[in-house]
């Protein structure tokens, strides 16, 4: 991990929070066609701007989350996605590798309710690697909440 300081930062943060993480090297470019990493579903982490702060939203890789549901949950009328530089400044990680693990600022975390009770693969802060975690343990470690964010669920 020493050649990837992002992994070391993510691992240190997880350890400090008592979160068990398995780091796995990925092969190929982009997400796997089956949406799995080492037999575990991949969850994407999106950093969303709410006023002057950011929020990590974690959802299944192929899922579309509902902006109206997210705005209602956060109690705001407007949310935005920062550009690549803004996302990096907010998290310390590049797009495509964003994760709450070891992020520069411990922004609030919201997980889609469909992830509850599952092992999931997250970004690690470094391209080419995934972090396999228990979603419930992740929620406890980051004082996160599960919320119904699916665009299709009512």
From TrEMBL:
Domain YbaK/aminoacyl-tRNA synthetase-associated: 41-138
Domain of life: Bacteria
Name by which UniProt lists this protein: YbaK/ebsC protein
Matching Gene3D superfamilies: YbaK/aminoacyl-tRNA synthetase-associated domain (3.90.960.10)
InterPro entries: YbaK/aa-tRNA-synt-asso_dom_sf, YbaK/aa-tRNA-synth-assoc-dom
Matches recorded under SUPFAM superfamilies: YbaK/ProRS associated domain
Species per Swiss-Prot/TrEMBL record: Leucobacter chromiireducens subsp. chromiireducens
Pfam families per record: tRNA_edit
């Amino acid at each position: 991990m020493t050649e990837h300081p992002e992994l070391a930062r993510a691992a240190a943060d997880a350890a400090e929070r008592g979160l068990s993480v398995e780091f796995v090297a990925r092969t190929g470019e982009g997400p796997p066609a089956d949406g799995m990493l080492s037999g575990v579903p991949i969850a994407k982490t999106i950093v969303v701007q709410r006023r002057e702060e950011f929020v990590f939203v974690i959802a299944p890789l192929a899922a579309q989350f509902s902006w109206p549901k997210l705005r209602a949950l956060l109690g705001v009328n407007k949310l935005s996605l920062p550009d690549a530089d803004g996302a990096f400044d907010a998290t310390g990680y590049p797009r495509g590798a964003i994760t709450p693990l070891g992020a520069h600022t411990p922004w609030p975390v919201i997980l889609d309710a469909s992830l509850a009770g599952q092992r999931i693969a997250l970004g690690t802060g470094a391209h080419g690697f995934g972090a396999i975690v228990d979603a419930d343990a992740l929620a406890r470690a980051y004082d996160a909440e599960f919320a119904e964010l699916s665009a299709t669920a009512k």
